[in-house]
Amino acid sequence: MRSILKPALIMLSLLAAADAMAQAPSLAKCTRSANLLACVDADGNTYSVNTAGSTIYLRGLEAAGKRYWVQTNSRYGQLTFFTGIASDGETWVGYNQRIGWTTINRFSSSGGSSAKFTCSRITGC
User: Fold this and answer.
1) How far is the C-alpha of 16 from the C-alpha of 55, rounded, in Å?
2) Where is the signal peptide (predicted)?
3) Domain spans of the chain?
């Protein structure tokens, strides 16, 4: 699995807890405004999350591979669909569905990666 896909999905799952992420220096150092969260982690990876209504725009740079990526998420109630593309041409699609405190995540990429994983506030991912 590409190293950026799972962190991007986990980031999306944690958007509801963006305040907690911005305050946890071990995860990343973040700056936030009304609808933009911009972060850099200990490895030099950078990413930002911008919201506009029910659409979420993610963008980032994977420092090790100098790979840029963007992802767009569209939320419909408890279901979020997402698509992304990276500077090396890889694309991915997927969705996550919130059911109570649990999130079911599924994605596949043009690089051959696919996964289904469940995250919970109690047990994690």
Assistant:
1) 14
2) 1-22
3) 5-120
